[in-house]
């Protein structure tokens, strides 16, 4: 099974035909260590992306990521990232603001943490990038400063809210000439997924996938268009979808549906199992102890599981970790 085949990749390289060669048994961390290796294909190439078209004149050797969400996929593809925006320091990150699932790789590669959260144009300029890659959506979006970034270096903005991490990684590989590294990370996960699917028993009925924010805030359910929903589908799970009248969708977002506290139990009433993302066992304990949720069928059957604190944003590293937890819970 190859998850990349779920739907078409959005990025096109108009200047040439790119070869997508396979590379067997390559760990994402190993690909990152080879980030200074040769690139593929001819240059220049024109990249079509979420903010328009960008011409990349030659194979980039100094890439800055303005999206910490995308940095993990860049590392997995083995591209030469020299600096990146970071997340706020929390239980999800290390002291640099690198997400925990790939923090050791970022440290080993010597990536410079440029700023936290809001884009610092001066810090980006100081890193002397020959290519900037950022997000067009989400909390780390660079859409508002796209023109300013483009004045510093060729800039590409990608969306991760309506694509799998495999599709995002493929886009990154094609934009940077690291198609082999991208394919190696994807193929490695596909092989692991095939093995995991043989050992797991998918629950009968629909499985709810959500970020539970307690009984004082809205919870967010992953849609089939999200990377999280796609991972569950590829693992053989039937994803519960929120009825239109019980949820709300943020403008421009395809990956999540917001459900209020008042509607949460109703939405989950028919779920045979519940997978809590951005969650650990303490989150599960809080969920099953909530008075309005304790009588749900999935709670009664002990079918509420945590996908891990690193599961809120998926890349090759965190997706592998989530798969390990699903195997543990559903084998």
Quickly describe the structure.
This protein has 331 residues and is of the alpha/beta class.
Order of helices and strands: EHEEEHEHEHEHEHHEEHEEHEHHEH
Please give the alpha-carbon distance between the first and last residues: 19 Å
Secondary-structure content class:
alpha/beta
CATH topology of the largest domain: Rossmann fold
Largest sheet: 6 strands, mixed
Q: Give the count of helical stretches.
A: 12
Radius of gyration: 20 Å
The overall pLDDT average reads: 89
CATH-defined architecture of the largest domain: 3-Layer(aba) Sandwich
Helix content: 25-40%
CATH class of the largest domain: Alpha Beta
Overall shape: it is globular
Taking pLDDT < 50 over at least 5 consecutive residues as the criterion, the unreliable ranges are: 1-37
Assembly form of the protein: single chain
**Count of all domains:** 2
What's the name of the CATH homologous superfamily of the largest domain? Nitrogenase molybdenum iron protein domain
Overall strand count: 14
Residue share in β-strands = 15-25%
Helix-strand layout with pairing:
Elements: E1 12-13, H1 28-33, E2 45-49, E3 52-56, E4 63-65, H2 68-77, E5 81-86, H3 103-109, E6 112-116, H4 121-126, E7 131-135, H5 146-152, E8 155-158, H6 165-176, H7 179-199, E9 206-211, E10 219-222, H8 227-234, E11 238-239, E12 256-259, H9 261-268, E13 273-276, H10 281-289, H11 297-300, E14 304-306, H12 316-330
Parallel strand pairs: 4-5, 4-7, 5-6, 7-8, 9-11, 9-13, 13-14
Antiparallel strand pairs: 1-2, 2-3, 9-10, 10-12
Helix pairs in contact: 2-6, 2-7, 6-7, 7-12
Explain what the structure shows.
The structure is a single chain. The protein is an alpha/beta fold. It contains twelve helices and 14 strands. It is globular, with a radius of gyration of 20 Å. Mean pLDDT is 89; it is low at 1-37.
